[in-house]
Amino acid sequence: MKLTRDAIARAALTVLNEVGLDGLTMRVLATELGVQAPTLYWHMKNKQELLDAMADLLAAETAEGVEAPRRGESWQEWLIGLAVRNRRVLLRYRDGARVAAGAYSANPAVARTVELILRTLQDAGFEPAIAARAFPVLLHYTIGFTIEEQARTGVAYERNPYAGGLAVDAEKFPLTASVAGDLYPADTDANFEYGLRLILDGIQSQGSSRLSA
Fold this sequence. Notes:
- The chain is mostly helical.
- It has a single domain (about 5-210), classed as Tetracycline Repressor, domain 2 (Orthogonal Bundle), CATH 1.10.357.10.
- Helix content is about 70%, strand content about 0%.
- The protein contains eleven helices and no strands.
- Helix 4 (about 45-65) crosses helix 7 (about 110-125), helix 5 packs parallel to helix 8 (about 130-150) and helix 8 (about 130-150) packs antiparallel against helix 11.
């Protein structure tokens, strides 16, 4: 196999599922590719460049086939669909969200998706500057939520420590005990979407206040 940036990154995602982010080293990756570790440094200066290349592939996978909202589809539902798709891609890979966190992506598909998001929000009445500050909040929430989700269900625990809700002393903390099942619900899909809608309500409010000013 010819070594390219994308080929190395794809192999790294395969290794990631086997050993996790902490176990992913240039040496381990070189063994997977059947080369010596120094060979990889002709293509990647360091591990951060490798993570950026891996994040590029994750972003491209998320962006594949994304189009502007369909007729009659609200900007909120469109953004929810995009965030759900992003989370789904991150969950396909062990520590996928940690790979994406803080990574720099130069993939053209990313720029195209950002342009679609900004245009969708502009068409909904948001000023470009507000849209530019608003949509990264959704991205950061998605990555943060998924990091937490993958950490709880990872190999560090035999089972999700929050399964069944938060264990608290009901006499000392009655309010917390009364909503223990709602603090960390088992249905993470529904919980993720609930958070998205809270954020979108805030974005809507911010846009509305500016428009009425």
